[in-house]
């Protein structure tokens, strides 16, 4: 379809493969502007279309979407994107350019073909702003070195990551001592006596201090009250600080169906979640503990020796370590020690890679997802959307410790969840700050 002269004011966004694998519907999110997909991107997507990971799903869904949008049109020509106020798209074949990225960077690779596509558009679409969109930082830097505009894919990104620091837990000083005494005596007080006209945040936790004493409290949005939070044991695991106490309270609260726990290594995120699951084992049919597989140096696990179980064991070992730590709180002859072995043997407690569990039914399950910062927003949504009756889902991770190349602190699924779900009555978030692993581990987190 021919484009009118009035379209000259619209920008042209060139998408690379990383954007498609992050969000298959990204092509539809550029308002009235036009989108170009280099043919190299389709070639790369062909390698991703088989498999069970989210990137395989995104690749397949994008190919289907492109097929639907193209209908009877030749997609190397401008084709309208369906929907009001949408622009056009096309697939660009490998063009011939006066400036060749392969020659400039001294190597022929797919990234450079994508750069050549953007260079070609800049040359032939005179007067229009051409922008390369990529989640690959290095590719964006290369584009800028060629005098091309380049930017990250911003849709779904948390705009102010610092605001997440103030989600879920608050400190309040200057509270009347009589109110704190009342909380100790009667367990709960009307929220207005403490919060006054301050905005209530569902399932928020508070450290309340007067001149002489303090108390840990929880805002119960159901009856609009402030409740005292006491330290509780979960399968013989005792919280060591206020944040861990809050985390266990949320994990053990049957009315809170979705919990996220953020914190650096050694703060006890996974340990507390697993202990809470074991404490409530009678309330659920199964306990699932899973984590995404992020191979070292971003190599595929296929390069590791052995069968599939041998390949995956190194990635699951930290989860087994937490289970062994809880089990070792008891003597081998104790029924609690033996119960854990029994749960594992009967597959009522399952530790597996997330890809192995993603397709299963999530009804009557306590589901813990470790290292959730390595998930995309779409993966987080997919997991939660599969929750059935009597299911509780817990995401743990550190939004500043990303192990995948195309995610960052603002675009990862855990940050997205905290930002979008805050204040929902079914959701609670806790940030663990103090490392409890050892003094040596704390030194590493604080100084190195």
From TrEMBL:
Keywords per UniProt: ATP-binding, Nucleotide-binding
CDD domains: PIN_VapC_PhoHL-ATPase
InterPro entries, sorted: P-loop_NTPase, PhoH, PhoH2-like, PIN-like_dom_sf, PIN_dom
GO annotation, cellular component aspect: cytosol
N-terminal signal peptide: none
Pfam families documented for this protein: PhoH, PIN_4
SMART domains: PINc
The organism's place on the tree of life at top rank: Bacteria
Coiled coil: none
Ranges for domain PIN: 11-141
Family of this protein: In the N-terminal section; belongs to the PINc/VapC protein family.
PANTHER family: PIN DOMAIN-CONTAINING PROTEIN (PTHR30473:SF2), PROTEIN PHOH (PTHR30473)
The protein, known as: Phosphate starvation protein PhoH
């Amino acid at each position: 379809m021919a484009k009118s002269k009035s379209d000259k004011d619209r920008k042209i966004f060139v998408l690379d493969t990383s954007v498609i694998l992050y969000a298959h519907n990204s092509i539809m999110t550029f308002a009235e502007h036009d989108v170009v997909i280099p043919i190299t991107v389709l070639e790369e997507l062909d390698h991703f279309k088989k498999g069970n990971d989210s990137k395989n799903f995104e690749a397949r869904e994008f190919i289907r979407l492109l097929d639907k949008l193209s209908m009877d049109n030749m997609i190397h020509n401008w084709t309208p994107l369906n929907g009001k106020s949408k622009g056009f798209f096309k697939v660009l074949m490998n063009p011939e350019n006066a400036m060749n990225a392969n020659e400039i960077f001294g190597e022929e690779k797919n990234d450079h073909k994508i750069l050549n596509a953007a260079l070609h558009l800049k040359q032939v679409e005179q007067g229009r702003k051409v922008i390369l969109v990529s989640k690959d930082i290095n590719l964006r830097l290369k584009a800028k070195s060629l005098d091309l505009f380049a930017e990250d894919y911003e849709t779904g990104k948390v705009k102010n990551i610092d605001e997440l620091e103030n989600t879920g837990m608050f400190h309040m000083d200057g509270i009347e001592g009589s109110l704190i005494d009342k909380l100790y005596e009667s367990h709960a007080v009307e929220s207005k006596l403490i919060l006054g006209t301050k905005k209530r945040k569902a399932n928020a936790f508070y450290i309340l201090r007067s001149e002489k004493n303090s108390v840990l409290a929880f805002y119960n949005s159901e009856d609009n009250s402030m409740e005292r939070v006491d330290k509780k044991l979960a399968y013989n695991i005792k919280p060591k600080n206020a944040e861990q106490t809050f985390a266990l309270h949320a994990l053990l609260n049957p009315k809170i169906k979705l919990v996220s726990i953020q914190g650096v290594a050694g703060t006890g995120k996974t340990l507390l979640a697993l202990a809470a699951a074991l404490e409530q084992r009678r309330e659920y049919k199964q306990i699932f503990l899973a984590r995404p597989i992020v191979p070292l140096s971003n190599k595929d696990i296929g390069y590791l020796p052995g069968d599939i179980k041998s390949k995956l064991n190194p990635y699951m070992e930290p989860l087994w370590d937490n289970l062994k730590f809880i089990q070792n709180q008891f003597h081998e002859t104790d029924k609690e020690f033996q119960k854990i072995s029994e749960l594992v043997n009967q597959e009522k407690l399952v530790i597996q890679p997330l890809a192995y569990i993603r397709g299963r039914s999530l009804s009557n399950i306590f589901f813990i997802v470790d290292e959730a910062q390595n998930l995309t927003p779409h993966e987080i949504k997919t997991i939660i959307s599969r929750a059935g009756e009597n299911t509780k889902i817990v995401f743990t991770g550190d939004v500043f410790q990303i192990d995948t190349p195309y995610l960052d602190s603002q675009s990862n699924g855990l940050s997205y969840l905290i930002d979008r779900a805050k204040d929902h009555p079914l959701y609670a978030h806790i940030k663990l700050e103090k490392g409890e692993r050892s003094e040596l581990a704390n030194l590493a987190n604080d100084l190195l």
